[in-house]
Amino acid sequence: METFVETPRTLTELRAGIASGATKAADLAASYYERIAKINPRLNVYLSLTKERALEQAARVDEAAAKGDPLGPLAGIPVGIKDVLVMKGAPATAGSKILQGYRPPYDATAVSKLEAAGAVLLGKLNCDEFAMGSSNENSAYGPVRNPVDTERVPGGSSGGSAAAVAANMAVATLGSDTGGSIRQPASFCGVVGVLPTYGRVSRYGLIAFASSLDRVGPFAANVRDAATLLGVIAGHDAKDATSSTAPVPDYAAESDRPAEGLRIGVPSEYFAEGLDAEVRTAIEKGIAALEKAGCTVKPVSLPHTKYAVPTYYLIATAEASANLARFDGVRYGYRSPASETLSAMYSHSRDEGFGAEVKRRILLGTYALSAGYYDAYYLKAQQVRRLLAEEYLRVFAGVDAIVTPTSPMPAFKLGEKTGDPLAMYLADIYTVTASLAGICGVTVPCGKTQAGLPVGMQVLAAHLNEGTAFRVARAVEAAGL
Amino acid sequence: MTAKVTVEEVGRVAELAHLELTPEETGHMLTDLNAILDYVAELNELDTKGVIPLAQVSELGDAAGANVVRADQVQPSVDRAAVMTQAPDSDQVFFKVPKVIER
To answer: Which of A105, A331, A421 is nearest residue B82 as measured by Cβ atoms?
Structure first.
């Protein structure tokens, strides 16, 4: 089994080295680019590098450190960005051919916030086309390979973001999560991934998939670092009308608080048929560790869970069909050459530019929204969405957090599920409900299978309760399973 | 909700979505769409009479992201020249496209 796993040093350690001058941000960036050059040809994690911008930022950090100027919380930290978030002047493909050649003229808010905190942005990370996929095999630029075992998928859609941290090709990364696209790859690669509350992080500069579900969130090698990153990128942004005005707590400090006394709910519906036996055993050990840490564990019920995947795929595809209408070959990206009429240019550009899964979802979404079917599909799904959300709110009245497996199975093999779109959708069974409800969560490594594949525990908390999710995840991490 | 999609419907939906499918693609999409629609028909088991559709989580109890309306003031935007460099075809002021109306 070919493996490239290497754990990055912690933020605290790196940041201290940079502040004291013992570590130069420029050297650190150079060493990351060296590692990327060496192993990226095997893993296909980065789609493009932003070297010039990274080295300029590293020089600024080193200069500030030398002068004893105050440094940001991420000063000199090498960070990678999922290629659905735009960086001014850098390629932004969203894993699609239709955006080939596009160089956006602005930065996403999460990107500029990272840089303002001192982060050194290394480059753009591979992902499923328009973040649609659970294995990274839908990228027009080839799949990412899982650094734990290169015969396996890293999960998706933020496969590059998860793999980069697992293989130490970045200290931390940003991804996006619409139905599980941060949590599932984090669990497959054995790293920490955060689903912030809907509205907690600005979506400005995130190439839209399903706007009522899309979130931007961090990946890191440990819970505290992930919490620090969330603290940097969270907050209100006038450029995203759905971004929350709620104050941003010190998430790293929150994550330091013991989990003792927290009430943990375990929903039986997440441990039913279809759950891999080894994943179940690993999660049960994680739950035992929480009890040992002083949490009260009790069974809870989320009976509508089985309706989450169909609800999600109707809502997400409907929104996607509207969002992806903008890719028409007029203003940016790919235009099919030699079309006689405007209408032919639209359909040729889209047909040549989009991959099979994206077309499948656009068609499903267009169908669900079309006259005669709207009530039966889209409206019905929105009604079920309310039932699912209210069910969570009821359960959160009695517990502080809910823990579940992040995925019903560990990382599967490349090609294993590509022939059956429905089987691929079912890989999202434990993650889509939180997406529909808008609540937050963290996935944290929770042991391994006998074959050495990572298992992730999903810790869910109510809207804006990221701090609680971090505390619970920290307790699982501390158990060292 | 259990209605089967036909080849004609796939064609009609593809036209609505400005997608031009090859006959082979149409065949695949027909199979996949029917499998997915069969699966989502599970939702029919649920009685949702009187349930108000949830389009946006902002409206939920303690949720984040309450709708924000900004002051109606002119704000600077991305520079036109920077935007136009990205166009496949433009005269730097307008986007150029093939002819729209047949004469």
So the answer is: A105
